Amino acid sequence: MDRKIKIYIGFLVVLFIALVVNDYNKPKPIDWSPTYSLKDKIPYGMYVFDNEINSLLKHQKIDKINVTPYEYFDARYDYDTLVNDYKVNGTFLSISKNLITDEESTTEICSFVRYGNSAFISSETIPYALLDSLDLKIEREYIHSDSIYNWVANKKLGDKKYKITEGVNNNYFSKIDTLNTTVLGYQNGDSTKVNFIKIGYGEGTFYLHTQPVAFTNFHLLKSNHHEYAQKVLSYIPKGDVFWYTKDQDGSIISDSPFRYILSQPALKWAWYIFLMGMLVFILFNAKRKQRIVPIIKPLSNTTVDFTKTIGNLYFQEGDHNTIMDKKIIYFLEKIRNEYLIDTHKLDDDFIKKVQLKSRKDLDDIKNAISLINSYRKNNYPSIEEDLILLNKAIEKVIN
To answer: Which domains are seen in the chain, by residue range?
Structure first.
């Protein structure tokens, strides 16, 4: 291997090792993605809430729902005409950044509440179909303050305001049915807005809250923020809780065939080293090897073969005169094209011009011209010896 190539490879290896060591030793950046996943320990995951929900909702049975609300509750509805009620009772619980449900699921949640159950939804956005059914409207306030306080309205739970700033949104209920709605909580940025309400629906109740970030890892572990989460959750009625965790329980699997390799640091770096090694191999090996270049045979000169064939035909037939005529025509044509000399009169002046331009021996030129003139004057058939003699004389002049 060339010494220069070895230096290049060595430099790349040292550079790669330095990058690996630097990446390994530097602190991992904090992921502030609002995943609200029960498996995530990042600030805006819900790992802590998942582990502490039994202490937050004491003596209540928690049933996690990993299918759509429609699939879950419709399967538990008794369609008997004498019953027409759900086989389960309790509270539908949903805590997510944005509650996204299909129309059938929204209708099913409303039906579940109408039959005397309750629904607790904490989300920055709530499906329009549900807001429309409850005659509510949510808007976003653009604030300039960096201090946002949240608190509950019930004085029995205390009047403490919690400065929950990180990750909060400015959504609030801008329209409520005051005859059927109870305000349970507020937030204050530039002004005081309603962010937690209780609203009756049929024989049941909806509890709607617009600050789900209060239930994430960051705020449950920061200062006294967990108190605010406890106060909000205290409104959930005693009984079974059906916690909607679809797409939040960590069951979403990447479609990438390399998902496991890339999820393991050791395998990930092994894969990267393999790719870099293959790249180096391809780059340097491509310069040393190439495909075999096929040998392309040149096209044969069929004109020469054709001429030989015709010449042999005349020669075999004994037609020496014709061959001599062709030979003389070819000789004179060559003189005209190469030396630009008129060939009408083959006299001494012609001989001198040919000798000056061709630099051939004067006696050879005289001999060739003499044989041509002699052949043209005689009318008797030529023999083979005459043809050979003329051919040799001409070849000495034109070759």
So the answer is: 3-27+258-288 (no CATH), 47-244 (3.40.50), 302-398 (no CATH)
